[in-house]
Specification:
By secondary structure, the protein is mainly α. The protein has five helices and no strands. About 7% of the residues have low confidence.
Length: 180
């Protein structure tokens, strides 16, 4: 009698294993998307902080973004069992530490070039991690990803526009008070 249930139990175990694998792949892909976004946002905010180095709020934003980057690295490290992924993460973590060091240094052309390089390295490294975990998305997943991408793009553009508005207001006040 138990012989009849053996294939069903095997199918259930296989299904649960596939679900767990897919769930971990989704966690890794979500973390890679977050790292892509943060790598570019950190570089943008670094350059914005060069215009207003005295702003404590900008330094707090950079610290928060670097911490979020580290948290996404931890998600991938905990979830992934792949040795290549762990090696790439180790290198990306080193780049993150180098970015942190640049925050405390003088803003100059060399440091700006390094910040751009670190941002691009993070982007390329996380793209190679994401390629290893990609799978064909269902219609629902594709819609959710498109929605998240749209929201991320909207937030990035609104941040850029807000930064430009703040900059122009600051310049207006500066020129007004200098001309008095």
């Amino acid at each position: 009698m138990y012989q009849n249930f053996r294939p069903i139990v095997l199918l259930l175990a296989l299904n649960m294993t596939l679900f767990a694998t897919t769930r971990s792949d989704v966690k890794i892909l979500e973390a890679t998307e977050n790292i892509r976004y943060l790598s570019q946002k950190i570089v943008k905010n670094y350059f914005f902080s060069t215009s207003y180095p005295q702003q404590l709020m900008m330094q707090n934003t950079l610290d928060t973004e670097i911490e979020a980057l580290g948290e996404n690295f931890r998600i991938i490290a905990i979830t992934s069992k792949d040795g290549d992924t762990k090696d790439i993460l180790e290198f990306l973590s080193y780049n993150r530490e180098q970015m942190l060091e640049l925050f405390g240094q003088e803003h100059n052309f060399e440091n700006a070039s390094l910040m751009i390089d670190y941002g691009e390295t993070l982007l390329e490294g996380v793209n190679s991690i994401a390629q290893a975990y990609e799978y064909p998305f269902s219609d629902e997943e594709a819609l959710l990803i498109a929605n998240k991408t749209l929201n991320t793009s909207y937030n990035a553009y609104s941040n850029i526009i807000w930064s430009c508005i703040q900059s122009s207001i600051a310049q207006s006040f500066k020129s007004y008070y200098n001309n008095r």
